[in-house]
Amino acid sequence: MTPLRLVFMGTPDFAVPSLRALADAGHEVVCVYSQPPRPAGRGQQIQKSPVHRFAEERGIPVRTPKSLRNAEAQAEFAELKADAAVVAAYGLILPQPILDAPRLGCLNVHGSLLPRWRGAAPIQRAILAGDAETGITIMQMDIGLDTGAMLLKDAVPISAETTASSLHDALADMGARLIVEALDGLAAGRLTAEPQPEAGVTYAAKLTREDGRLDWTRDAAYVERQVRALTPWPGCWFDAPTPTGGVERIKVLKAELAPDPRKAAPGTLLDDRLTIACADGGVRLTLVQRPGKAPVDGAALLRGFALPVGTRLGDAACSAGN
Fold it and tell me: What is the pTM for the complete model shown?
């Protein structure tokens, strides 16, 4: 292995294994770029990103610019004289002068099998779409949105039990392994970047809280995938009617397909185990949470919440006005 002079650019937990792997492999990480500290948690205390904290533990200098578009930031980056920059869920757009500065360019650790799921939320979108597999692509970055030529790929299956959290962790570890391999191959001249095919391009749009609204008018398999794909962020939920005529937002943490549910209009509560009718089949909500309460199973929720069998939860969601 040829030790390289690297800049690492990343922010969330997903990026930490890659930074750790590069440092442990003997590369010289001369600087880390990460998103600026921001308020987080219940107390909204200013917190450094996971990558920022890890870099400080390793004694690596950290920079947290709000933008890389100005000439001063670009000059400071170029002065690092990096052989390569590694980018993993950084969160800032890299202008062309940044992409051009490192000798071997900027390499991105992307959480999908490109060109499928370019964009911000590839892990969640792959589960939500019912994909049979996803993976990691190590890409030579260009100015487009995840359009650069590919250096390495590896795949992981998506099963009926795969959640966003479990897939996130598996891909983070896979990305750490592949980025080390890619840098070794690139430095030794063994790897040639391959352009992405034009066929098969899809976009993983950024998630919003509204994506977590459970849509009973979809088939049950889709609703169950919603819960696996969108927990913990943005979180899944539905609005339930209260005895006073209002609505209460219920978070859904786990769900399963209901065996042989009876036919009913989408959104209908079918039994005392919190089974909800969908357009095709039904889902049983197995772990739910009321505001300010601890998570409980569906049956326990119904014992403490007046929701008679036959209640139309879909109607409640509409009347809540989002």
Answer: 0.93
